[in-house]
Amino acid sequence: MARLDQQNCMTDGSAEVINPPDGAPTRDAVWRDEELAAIHGREDKARKVRAMFGAIARSYDLNNRVHSLWQDEAWRRTAVRMAGVQPGEIVLDMACGTGDLTQAFARRSPASLVIGGDFTHQMLELAAHKRARLDPKIAGRVRYIEADAMALPIADASVDVVSIAFGIRNVQQPERAVAEFRRVLKPGGRAVILEFDRPRLAPVRWFNDFYCGQIMPRTATWISRDTSGAYRYLPRSVSSFMSHEALGGLLREAGFAGIRHQSLSLGICVCTVGALAG
């Protein structure tokens, strides 16, 4: 595989996505109620996740702000801080969606290049439009590529930080994604995973379960006019996914060390960081 071309932000077989092809959002149900009992082991999970995010892309940012009670931006700032980006380093932000964390790295770190990767065209299209509104000096350090976290079109040992925010639970096989993160990271590189978790304090956990299980699916579906079942899938994907401790174990098995966890908003989400030996 070719080395990463920092100037043009492309590898052999993949080019920067500036105006990804349009795709009409699905009007059909992607997730049916009977399919939500076992979502993480499904062979068609990746296909369904791509269709689901395509369906909700246009209202995705608004729902994120409203249903995180405007905390999602603070969570991303923590992820940027914990990444410890040094001047001249390259960041790969996977499952970048509409580019919020990608752009946070460009604005708040001294990275020389921040690559946002996602496998949903509609999300990348919105990310590219948001980049056009950035200060040119910041926008010039941001690139977007269409990419699957389980098969990155990035050369071995070519980036310094790999991040993924609220996306690892949506990957068909998280262990394959973590192995890919290790492959593309340089010695001393860091993996930064921001993901929802179940709060340890019982009153917070009860409130969060009720909010995510009963209120959010209804209001988010109403805001997005979604028919894909996305906002029934999303809370289920959190409650049935591995804990942050198990996620740290997954990083250790892949060869990462110095695992750190930062609990945020009383444990509603956790930022997990692991590093490779220098």
Can you tell me about this structure?
By secondary structure, the chain is an alpha/beta fold. The chain has a single domain (33-275), classed as Rossmann fold, CATH 3.40.50. 41% of the residues lie in helices and 18% in strands. The chain contains 9 helices and 7 strands. It has helices spanning 45-67, 72-83, 100-108, 121-131, 136-139, 174-184, 202-224, 230-239, 244-253; strands at 90-94, 113-118, 142-146, 159-165, 185-196, 257-264, 269-275. The protein has a 7-stranded mixed β-sheet, with helices on both faces. Helix 6 links the parallel strand 4 (159-165) and strand 5. The radius of gyration is 18 Å and the shape is globular. The model is unreliable at 18-26 (pLDDT under 50).
How would the blueprint of this fold be written?
Blueprint: H1 45-67, H2 72-83, E1 90-94, H3 100-108, E2 113-118, H4 121-131, H5 136-139, E3 142-146, E4 159-165, H6 174-184, E5 185-196, H7 202-224, H8 230-239, H9 244-253, E6 257-264, E7 269-275
Parallel strand pairs: 1-2, 1-4, 2-3, 4-5
Antiparallel strand pairs: 5-7, 6-7
Helix pairs in contact: 1-4, 1-7, 2-3, 7-8
Number of strands: 7
Strand order of the largest sheet: 3-2-1-4-5-7-6
DSSP strand (E) fraction? 15-25%
In CATH, the topology is named Rossmann fold
> What gap, in angstroms, lies between the N and C termini?
23 Å
Q: How many strands, which pairing sense, and closed or not: the largest β-sheet?
A: 7 strands, mixed
Radius of gyration: 18 Å
3D shape: globular
Q: What is the helical fraction, as a range of percent?
A: 40-55%
> At the fourth CATH level, what is the homologous superfamily?
Vaccinia Virus protein VP39
The name of the CATH architecture is: 3-Layer(aba) Sandwich
Q: Count helical runs.
A: 9
Structural class: alpha/beta
Poorly predicted ranges (pLDDT <50, ≥5 residues)? 18-26
What does the average pLDDT come to?
90
The first-level CATH class is given as: Alpha Beta
| Topology order in helix (H) and strand (E) letters | HHEHEHHEEHEHHHEE
The figure for the number of domains is: 1
